Every structure is written in C-alpha cells, then in structure tokens.
C-alpha cells in the first residue's frame, strides 16, 4: 500500500472536522506541551496531520515549531489555516521512518502515529530518531490507543499500549535512553460520538 496516498486520500475524502481523530482543541496535548515546553523552546509535532496544536504553540510563544507528516495534504490544511503565521513554522513532509532531524527540540509530541508502527525495526528506527531529535533532558509526549482502544485507525492496524507496555517497549528497544515521567488515560470522542481509549505517556530523555 502507498501510505502517502492513503493519508492524502484520508484528508481529501472528508472535511477535517469529520476525521475520527479531529479535535477542535487538542486539550490533553496542549496541557502537557504547556507543562513541559520552556518559554521560547522548540516543539516538533510528529504526524501532526491537520492538528491545531501548532496554532496554540505559536500563540503561546514557542520559539520554534516544526510540524511533520507524510501527508502534504494535511500540512496544506495547517498552512491555509495559519495564513501569514505559517512562515513561523517549519513544515516537513516525510515518513517519520526516513527523517534525519537537523536540529534538536525541547519537546517531541506524537498523538496517534507511533501506534501505526507495528514492526519492531520501524519502532527502533522511530526511537533512534526521537533520541537524536531531543535536546538533553528533552521531553517526549506519546499518545497511542490504549489496550482497550480500537484495533485499527484510519483502516490501518495499530499496536495498542498501556503506559506500562509503552514504557517497557521503550526500555527494550532504546535501553537506558528514556525515563517515564507521567502517564494518563483519556477517552477521545470522535465526531460521530464514538469513544476511543487513549493513553498518553511523558518520557524524559536520559542519554
Ligand atoms: C490519526 S492521525 C493523527 C493526526 C494528529 N496527530 C492529530 O492528533 O490530529 C495520524 C497522522 O499520522 C500521519 N502518519 C502516519 N504514519 C506516518 C509516518 N510513518 N510518518 C509520518 N506521518 C505519519 C498521518 O498522515 C496522519 O496525519
């Protein structure tokens, strides 16, 4: 399957606010980013899609904001929405598995992207990139479907995690590199009113 085509189609087939993962305000993400991003710090939203997290981060005074997604169509929705403010954002259209970051970030945010990586080699690659991209003591915020969440997302199979199994995965695939700091469970309400169980975990880079 061509993943880029899959995701570009997802963002053209339906309005942004009809996508199952749509959030008018990304409340959990925003609260955690505000808690961990220093004033003027650098944030990367990995698999940002069309998320409004970037709008809030700019309004909050983030020093640098990067949004990365393999779907250009999704990134175009952010560009159009931000208008002139889009010049303050770095847009990177790539598969996270192919990304070689050229700077470091204080906070890495991922809502519903890591869970698509069901292959161990892909997970290892992702974590190696996460480690390279984070500044010393940088923070990773990783939101995935919880163990009782759906088995697929946008028609693709996902790996579901509890905070414990996610921490164990990071410890096994990137030993000694990330310390779990906090975690929480939340239910996302889709535009059709269905409930999706998420976990979100916060890790600090150690190495
Ligand atoms: C379920 S959506 C979540 C979007 C956004 N994080 C949010 O919370 O609204 C998953 C996003 O991840 C992107 N994506 C999926 N696999 C990816 C990969 N390997 N590399 C980069 N982006 C990916 C998709 O294009 C899509 O925008």
Account of the protein in words:
This protein is α/β, with parallel strands linked by helices and 207 residues long. It has one domain: Rossmann fold (3-Layer(aba) Sandwich). It contains six helices and nine strands, in the order ααβαβαββαβββαββ. The strands form two sheets. The chain has a seven-stranded mixed β-sheet with strand order 3-2-1-4-5-9-8, with helices on both faces. Strands 6-7 form a two-stranded antiparallel ribbon. The mean pLDDT is 97. The site of S-adenosylmethionine has 19 residues, from loops.
List keywords for this structure.
seven-stranded mixed sheet; 6 helices; binds S-adenosylmethionine; alpha/beta; two-stranded antiparallel ribbon; 207 residues
Concise account of the structure shown:
With 207 residues, the protein is α/β, with parallel strands linked by helices. It is 31% helix and 30% strand. The chain has 6 helices and 9 strands.
Backbone structural class: alpha/beta
Quote the average pLDDT: 97
Taking all Cα atoms into account, the compactness measure Rg is 16 Å
Q: What is the number of beta strands?
A: 9
Q: Tell me, briefly, the overall form.
A: globular
Instruction: Provide the β-strand percentage band.
Output: 25-35%
Estimate percent helicity: 25-40%
Largest sheet, in brief, is:
7 strands, mixed
Bound molecules: S-adenosylmethionine
For this structure, what is the CATH homologous superfamily?
A: Vaccinia Virus protein VP39
Question: Ends: how far apart?
Answer: 36 Å
Summarize the helix and strand pattern as letters.
HHEHEHEEHEEEHEE
**What name is given to the CATH topology?**
Rossmann fold
Give the domain tally.
1
């Amino acid at each position: 399957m061509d993943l880029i085509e899959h995701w570009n189609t997802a963002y053209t087939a339906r309005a942004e606010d009809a996508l199952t993962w749509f959030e008018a305000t990304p409340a959990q993400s925003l609260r955690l980013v505000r808690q961990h991003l220093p004033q003027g710090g650098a944030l990367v939203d990995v698999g940002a899609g069309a998320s409004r997290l970037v709008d809030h981060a700019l309004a909050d005074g983030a020093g640098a904001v990067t949004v990365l997604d393999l779907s250009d169509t999704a990134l175009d929705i952010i560009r159009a929405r931000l208008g002139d403010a889009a010049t303050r954002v770095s847009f990177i259209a790539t598969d996270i598995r192919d990304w070689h970051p050229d700077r470091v970030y204080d906070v890495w945010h991922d809502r519903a992207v890591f869970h698509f990586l069901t292959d161990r080699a892909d997970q290892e690659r992702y974590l190696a990139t996460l480690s390279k991209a984070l500044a010393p003591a940088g923070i990773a915020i990783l939101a995935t479907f919880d163990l009782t969440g759906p088995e697929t997302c946008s028609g693709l199979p996902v790996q579901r995690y509890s905070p414990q199994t996610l921490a164990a995965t990071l410890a096994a695939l990137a030993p000694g590199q990330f310390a779990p700091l906090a975690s929480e469970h939340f239910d996302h309400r889709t535009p059709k009113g269905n409930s999706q169980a998420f976990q979100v975990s916060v890790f600090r880079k150690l190495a």
